[in-house]
Design goal:
Blueprint lengths: L4 E2 L9 E3 L2 E2 L23 E3 L1 H17 L5 H16 L1 H4 L3 E5 L2 H8 L9 H15 L5 E5 L5 H8 L3 E6 L2 H10 L4 E4 L12 E7 L8 H11 E12 L11 E3 L5 E3 L7 H8 L4 E7 L32 H4 L4 H8 L5 E8 L3
Parallel strand pairs: 5-12, 6-7, 6-9, 7-8, 9-10
Antiparallel strand pairs: 1-2, 2-3, 4-5, 10-14, 11-12, 13-14
Helix pairs in contact: 1-2, 1-11, 8-9
Bound molecules: S-adenosylmethionine.
S-adenosylmethionine binds next to helix 4 and helix 6.
Length: 348
């Protein structure tokens, strides 16, 4: 069997592809690639233990029960489950430490498979973004952090003249193939190679969670936006509130790396956007489908059954869920998968 590789979002339900075809799922840390070692960037080393994730799910489930959402039987079942999980700690294996890697490196390695089907986050976000774009006047559009050109292609199909920027050359290769009529630049969204007031619409989708400080990023997007122009943002959300789930990947040298992500509150976007003259036209927080899993541990989104977790590998949460189905469904219940904003810049 060939090495499976990741598709989909790090923050939602990634599908892995092997010689067995799309939909065969494996943990997301087998990557083809030629880099010798992840480059070093500043940031904390994180420690991910499979038991920590599972006990965390049971903890969230218990808090929900404590608040009255679930009953006594549910609570006692969770307490028994915690004991069982603790007893099986050895079978689950040790945790892993991972150090931060750049998004350029992370997405370059992901690019060949980013567009494969099975990415629940994109499936949840995309219809809302498209509905907003459908209602906007056609003009010059910037797709900031365009990735493989998912929204770039849609903007072009609507008749916009589109410019895409992204820091990952690998993602840009895919975008250029997909949307040959668009203009693409390898550039950071903090430093867009366009003049002031030069675009009618900016889209920035599922990228700001990689940006530590929203203020300067939004200021740069607003700089290139003409007065009255539109800004459409989308982003992934954390598991609960501000708890993100960074995905650990194995580099070719066997070292573990993760792309830092910053989960934030809706009010954080407002605090950054409103002082820049952006006015809210729409805000949606689409939820993860609930329940997430069937009683047999199958992901209801696509009916896929994941292989068992592999002790010693970085914890793959989508495999771990099957070990605590009720707790998973309770913890993920009602959780927003994404946030989508439509802002309009004030007239000059
Ligand atoms: C999850 S992908 C989303 C791609 C695309 N916007 C979409 O929604 O399909 C995140 C993208 O953001 C890009 N990215 C992350 N930080 C960036 C930055 N500071 N400047 C430009 N691109 C960035 C990554 O390279 C990656 O292509």
């Amino acid at each position: 069997m060939g090495s499976p590789v990741l598709t989909g979002s790090a923050l939602t339900n990634p599908t892995l592809v092997s010689e067995q075809g799309v939909g065969h799922r494996r943990p997301p840390f087998f990557f083809p690639g030629v880099i010798d070692e992840y480059s070093r960037i500043d940031g904390p080393v994180i420690y991910q233990h499979p038991l920590a994730y599972l006990l965390g799910l049971d903890g969230i489930a218990l808090l929900r029960a404590f608040s009255g959402v679930y009953d006594r039987d549910f609570t006692l079942a969770r307490l028994r489950e915690i004991q069982t999980l603790l007893d099986s700690a050895e079978d689950l294996g040790d945790g892993v430490e991972a150090r931060p890697i750049t998004t350029r490196e992370g997405y370059d390695r992901w690019a060949p498979l980013y567009d494969e089907p099975g990415n629940q986050l994109l499936d949840i976000e995309q219809p809302i973004v498209r509905e907003i774009l459908d209602g906007l006047p056609v003009g010059v559009a910037l797709d900031a952090a365009c990735g493989t050109g998912r929204h770039t292609a849609y903007l072009a199909s609507l008749g916009h003249k589109v410019i895409g920027v992204d820091t990952s050359p690998g993602m840009l290769v895919r975008a250029r193939d997909k949307v040959p009529e668009a203009e693409f630049y390898e550039a950071d969204l903090h430093d867009v190679p366009l003049p002031d007031d030069s675009v009618d619409l900016v889209v920035c989708a599922i990228a700001l969670s990689h940006v530590e400080d929203l203020g300067p990023a939004l200021a740069e997007l607003v700089r290139v936006l003409r007065p009255d122009g539109h800004l459409v943002l989308s982003d992934s959300r954390g598991l609960i509130g501000d708890i993100g789930l960074p995905l650990v990947r194995v580099g070719p040298g066997g070292e573990f790396g993760y792309m830092p992500t910053y989960a934030r509150l809706a009010s954080d976007y407002l605090a950054a956007a409103l002082p820049l003259g952006l006015q809210v036209r729409r805000c949606e927080e689409p939820r993860t489908p609930s329940p997430l899993l069937g009683d047999d541990g199958v992901t209801l989104y696509d009916g896929a059954r994941l292989p068992d977790p592999v002790p010693g590998d970085p914890p793959y949460i989508w495999s771990l869920h099957a070990l605590a189905v009720e707790a998973t469904n309770a913890a993920w219940r009602g959780k927003p998968a994404a946030i989508v904003w439509h802002f309009q810049l004030s007239a000059a």
